[in-house]
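Dear support,

I submitted the protein below through the web form. The confirmation email said the job was done, but the results page showed an empty box. After a refresh the structure appeared. I'm attaching both so you can tell me whether what I see now is the final result or a partial one.
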Amino acid sequence: MKLIILFLFSLFLVLSCSSQSKRKTVTISASNIGEVNLSHFDKKIVIYSEVNPKEIEVENLNIHQGHFLKFENTKVANEKIISDLSNHFHLVNLSLEDIAIAVSQNINFESFPKLIFLNSSVVDLKTDQLFSAKNIFDHYQINEVGFIGLSDHVTHKKLDLNRFFINDSVLSILKIKKKAAQTNIKSFVLIHHFQNDIATIMERLPPSFINSMAN
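What the results page shows now:
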């Protein structure tokens, strides 16, 4: 009987190790502004905080980090901002503040089909799902790179936030990695608006993520 138990335990260890070895490993980079250097990506990736950057190269993959809509603006003024973004950027990260302002002013992101919006963490409590639309994605893949957009909790104090909830950032990343497991994604780029908190987020990720940089 002891031999049978020992055999079963040994078999469990072998299968467990085998499963671990097959687990897909990916690199992950985090950036709020500036260049993201990926050797296997054929374009320069640049992340901006400005809506109308003075110097921007159209041949790059240009990304806006989020926090572009203004609570004090009219709907027309905020829609003008989104229209300006479509002249410069390929991907735009949505913050909780951007989403809440858009909803309060009945701004439809689908009215700007040239833009691809990222929302990987803001949940719409009316649907119990991530806030989404036809051009809002929990992650977006270009070649072998997946782009993830995380939101901070910074919002205008007068905004009504009862409809929304921000998922834990690490949980959001893990869900996307699982969802993308059957793709050819080799790297993830996190678009964020955090400061020192990003280091803690990166440290909490499991060993299946290789941290290539964080800023």
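Response: this is the final, complete result; the empty box was a page-load delay. Helices lie at 2-22, 75-85, 96-104, 169-179, 197-204.
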